Amino acid sequence: MNTLKQLAPPQRRSLLVLFVTGLLFWISIAILLPTLPAYLDAIGISQQQIGLIIGAFAIGLLATRPLVGKLVDNKGRKLVLLIGTAVVAIAPLGYLTVTETPLLMAIRAFHGISIAAFTTAYSALVVDLAPPKQRGEIIGLMSLTNPVGVALGPAIGGYLQVHGLYREIFWISVISGAISFAVATQLRHNKPEIELDRDEPAHISTWQILTNPALAIPALVLLLIGFPFGAIHTFLPLYIQTLHVDFNPGLFYTIAAIASFSARSVIGSRSDRYGRGVFIAGSLCCYTAGVACLATAHSQWSFMFAAIFEGLGSGILIPMTVALVSDRSLPQHRGRVLSICITGLDLGIAIAAPVFGSIAGSVGYAGIFTIGTVMAMGAIGVFLRWGNRSLRHSIGFSFGRDLDVYRRG
Fold first, then answer.
1. Fewer CB in a 10 Å sphere around the end CB: N or C, the chain?
2. Residue 25: left (phi > 0), alpha (psi -120 to 50), or beta?
């Protein structure tokens, strides 16, 4: 918090506006997490079709990530932030009026644009405003909007769902998104106010990013984690129903959000001191443990422990990966680099929902989470082996003993 006090007043104001914008944005998104699959089931949508509809959200993400990355770098952060908040306010209106699967998929894909635009612009803005030596701390603090929003949203949505108030759920999502857009219009900071390196190219291609191990490996790790992440956020409510466990799905997301909040509030500043590697490796281990708990779940306690580990894992992994790729990229490339690297997570989610939905009948939900556990273990192996320039550097970096050889900015 002392770091925030040391910032210039315009920077602090911009961060405050961003925080409020982000909190309302994530409430709008998260209120639908435990309720939308159940709503679709209630109106007669099959399990496989539910997977396709939920998965279409990530299709919208994938289709627009590269574009918003370019817009963030070329047209400014604020424009893209406004696009994201506008979409999140409009999309829930579609769920109120449409019941056909193809149209629901189209609306869900449109909804996915909101995450692509918002998260890329938000992350780039936070990095712009953060002093390099305190980058991890600022990113950690500003990323708290996600767990807080994901704690409040499902809690509200779960309560209303019990009473069958689906229409009210969608309207709260719309109103939260609209207020988020209004707050975002007050943002004054737009482009990074730093001197760019003239010896470096003004633009970087997708191919250059994907063939650069410094940036490709974080994207691959997120891809592997995206599979269990997508399974959790698509099939968990239905999984709990099939086990006949007296456990509110909204409570899972709330517990995970509390764990995520606890981790993010303290890890950022420590990553500035000890490096990103040890915290990314630790987060992958936590996430693997959380998915493994789901694969063997049989009681309320199983889901509670799974939520804690999942919250710790995702709460540390995502902001630390943002910090890592920001360290490894230049300001004029940052929007595009962030958009492409985070696309790894989007792609995993996009593939997970329809693929797991198609095999749910044969392997069951427990089987889905068993496969997810194996993929999370694969992410640990990839990071330990290729997380830095050589095997020795990768292991040392993962245990906090070596600096990041790839760091640039």
1. N
2. alpha
- Does a structural domain hold residue 406? no
Query: DSSP letters of 354-401?
Result: HHHHHHHHHHHHHHHHHHHHHHHHHHHHHHHHHSSSSHHHHHHHHTTS
Cβ atoms of 140 and 265 within 8 Å: the answer is yes
Task: Tell me if 110 is assigned to some domain.
Answer: yes
- Per the structure, how many domains does the chain have? 1
pLDDT digits (tens, 9 = 90+) for 281-302: 999 999 999 999 999 998 999 9
> H or E segment at 72?
helix 47-74
Whether residue 278 is contained in a domain is answered as yes
The pLDDT tens digits for 183-224 are 999 998 655 544 555 566 667 888 889 899 999 999 999 999
In a domain, 191, yes or no: no
Which CATH number belongs to the domain containing residue 306 in this structure? 1.20.1250.20
Q: How far apart are CA 347 and CA 356, in angstroms?
A: 14
Burial class (CB in 10 A: 0-12, 13-18, 19+), 206: middle
**Residues spanned by the domain of 272:** 2-186+200-398
Burial class (CB in 10 A: 0-12, 13-18, 19+), 211: exposed
Looking from the CA of 56 toward its CB, the CA atoms found within 13 Å total: 17
pTM of the model as a whole: 0.84
Q: Are 175 and 309 in contact (CB under 8 A)?
A: no
